[in-house]
């Protein structure tokens, strides 16, 4: 089955490094207020997940969430988490490493949308 969120090999390496430093991690796709639209990386359970957050899946063994309103805009796209040089938001764990996580995306095919909707209707 197609995944709603994927991770590049380079980002997966950074996640492994951050796990070694900080222990279990989680991600939340920012809604764009203070942090732009960056995926934010936190120690697991440090960010309170609300009733309006949607769990998209797991990347590199970490839960990945997005706010419900933003999910409605992006529900037909697969999020691909990458890492690039540069300073991101100060709240995300990768910032001191001189890199930032970045969300890339691609539109799901009609077949993938049908597969996702069928799977979600049984949950």
UniProtKB/TrEMBL annotation:
Pfam families reported for this sequence: DUF779
Top-level division of the source organism's lineage: Bacteria
Organism phylogeny: Bacteria, Pseudomonadati, Pseudomonadota, Alphaproteobacteria, Hyphomicrobiales
Name the record gives this protein: DUF779 domain-containing protein
InterPro entries documented for this protein: DUF779
């Amino acid at each position: 089955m197609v995944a709603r969120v994927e991770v590049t090999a380079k980002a997966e390496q950074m996640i492994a490094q951050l796990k070694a430093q900080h222990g279990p991690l989680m991600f939340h796709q920012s809604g764009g207020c203070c942090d732009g639209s960056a995926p934010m990386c936190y120690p697991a359970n440090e960010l309170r997940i609300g009733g309006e957050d949607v769990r998209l899946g797991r990347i590199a063994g970490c839960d990945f969430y997005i706010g419900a309103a933003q999910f409605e805009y992006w529900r037909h796209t697969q999020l691909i988490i990458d890492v690039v040089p540069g300073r991101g938001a100060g709240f995300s764990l990768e910032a001191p490493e001189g890199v930032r996580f970045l969300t890339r995306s691609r539109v799901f095919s009609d077949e993938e949308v049908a597969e996702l909707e069928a799977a979600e209707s049984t949950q």
